[in-house]
């Protein structure tokens, strides 16, 4: 009789675990600073302020999102709107006069 059951057991698929929870450090440092927002209801999610979309809290996912063209465009829009606000607060001098010399 075979007391030894030597049938190979296929190991269950290993899922990468670890940094799938929001890291507060992302808000203050690193490449996600400025557009990443914490989701209070779900620690496994993060929100992109620029795209107004929910993201998974994997660093790879966030990096992939950050590299996306749509995201880059949205970041530019945010920065542009900030610049406009900044410009409105600053009184611009309209003393620029262009003299056009006419030659006949
Ligand atoms: Zn985004």
Secondary structure: elements and pairs:
Elements: H1 25-28, E1 36-38, E2 45-48, E3 53-56, H2 59-67, H3 69-89
Zinc ion (ZN) binds at residues 35, 48, 50-51, 65, 71, 74.
General description of the model:
The protein has 104 residues and is an alpha+beta fold. The chain has helices at 25-28, 59-67, 69-89; strands spanning 36-38, 45-48, 53-56. The chain has three helices and three strands; from the N terminus they run αβββαα. Strand 1 (36-38) and strand 2 form a beta hairpin. The radius of gyration is 26 Å and the shape is elongated. The model has no long low-confidence stretch (mean pLDDT 81). It binds zinc ion. Zinc ion is lined by residues 35, 48, 50-51, 65, 71, 74.
Helical amount: 25-40%
SSE pattern, N- to C-terminal: HEEEHH
Largest sheet, in brief, is: 3 strands, antiparallel
Q: Which structural class should the secondary elements be placed in?
A: alpha+beta
Strand order of the largest sheet: 1-2-3
Q: Report how far apart the termini are.
A: 115 Å
List low-confidence stretches. Answer: none
Gross geometry: elongated
Mean pLDDT metric: 81
Strands, count: 3
Ligands in the model, by name, code or SMILES, are:
zinc ion
The radius of gyration over CA amounts to: 26 Å
